[in-house]
Input
Amino acid sequence: MALRPDLAKIAELVPEGTRVLDIGCGEGELMEVLRRERHVDVRGLEIDPELVEKCVSRGLSVVQGDADRDLAGYPDASYDVAILSQTLQTAERPDYMLDQLLRIGQTAFVSFPNFAYWRMRFALLFRGRMPVTRHLPVSWYETQNIHHVTVDDFRQLIADKGVTVEGSWFFAGGREISGGNANWRAEHAVYQLSR
Amino acid sequence: MATALASHLNAITLGAPLALDSGKVLADVTLAYETYGELDAEKSNAILICHALTGDQFVAKTHPLTGKPGWWERMVGPGKPIDTDRFHVICANVIGSCLGSTGPASMGPDGKPYGMSFPVITIRDMVRAQVALLDQLGIGSLHAVVGGSMGGMQALSFAANFPGRTDRVLAIATTARHSAQNIAFHEVGRQAIMADPDWKGGDYYAAEGNGPEKGLSVARMAAHITYLSEAGLTDKFGRRLQDREEKSFGFDADFQVESYLRYQGLAFTTRFDANSYLYITRAMDYFDLAEEHGGLLADAFRACGDTRFCVVSFDTDWLYPTAESRNVVHALNAVAAPVSFVELSAPYGHDSFLLECPALDRVIKGFVG
Output
């Protein structure tokens, strides 16, 4: 199974042989690729017990837990890389979660859907309704995405925090695109951060 | 009981006396054990299963006293999640117990049953005996050590005290220390046994009758409640009456749940020794893995290296609730051990690990590999 483009990008960027924590690892697709192709010592954190069960039955080391609460229990700098894919917008406090991420990992990868993507803006502007799209397919009342964020919002937050951006990558329509006007054009963003 | 058993027992006498946590030494220790599946030429496919408080080595064989199927036949056997076509499963009766391993009912050095002169043992002492067994069987490193409830305590203790002797540790429905509530329930059971006049200070083996059956039965009844969930009991019995249309306005077992507990209590006395119950519950109460390692649970696991852990809890288990498992997981995370943890949903309370729970089958199969 091919990885989602943001995950494939992260898999490509994680250095070989490192220690990695995948927060919100789902069924462990990225973990599996990292283990197999990048020879990485990878651990996962996932809130959904059925997904954790799938990970464990694939032989992956995954702890069922709530990132909002449980990241605090991980020691400082215990991982080379911390990955937070499509989970930031579900956090109770995304800003605190970023702090945890950069405390636990030497470097962090964060991917998130861009709420300022032009299709979103059009949906809101012309239909006047919260957008339901391929990447955000759930109605406002049942979505886990409680903190919608745009590329520019994210940039502002990391600037305010004084976090270093090691790199950024953008995606639309399942393909990587250039970073120009990303706040309009990108459906997804991946950032590599460090303190 | 002993004579009926003898012909069914596969036992080994440990080559050296066992030094215990109490400072005492237990000599001539016998361990009764069963194995399932073939040991490979490299002796690399052995899995040690540790049994719970009243369990035994008959994991996947008919129990010689009750005639019932092995206690984990649904999990262990050819093609089962712990596949005996691939793995060599070893399960030993813990010391202090009564299914052939040295315990309070065994003959002491004076030629009489130990009774209360049997030394108080700990979970770590049980594990020491099992490691001595592995040594004698020539098994250096295990593929996995697996246990639920008290078996899980042994699995954790095994990892902490004998790091490097197992590649995997699977601890199910368990805890790294007995809570005040856990100790309290056990104390009720012990006091019920000791209050039975037939207990005779533990020296009942030569006496007429079957020993403190009433006390042991009450102990089992109280403990059995802690193994089930409230919803499970309600589903199974509700307030339904037992073989009668109306309440008797007396103290018969009017309710089905009473009748069930009385039956469970009585049935237990035919297969278990009351003094063993005292000693093993004591061992569980004394269990505090952090205390053994200087007060910090993470320190217990510091030497575990690449050993992989899997911790499983059940959402309806109020005896060893999920918080206890999380406590273990946090300690393992703190030393960056490769650990998996999942809280499974099952309706049966603590006993869920012994009952139908397909998700547990999948987790065990996946983790054991």
Observations:
- Residues 180-195 of chain B form the longest helix (16 residues).
- Chain B touches chain A through 23 residues (CB under 8 Å).
- Chain B has two domains: 2-178+288-368, 183-280.
- The first strand of chain B starts at residue 11 and ends at 13.
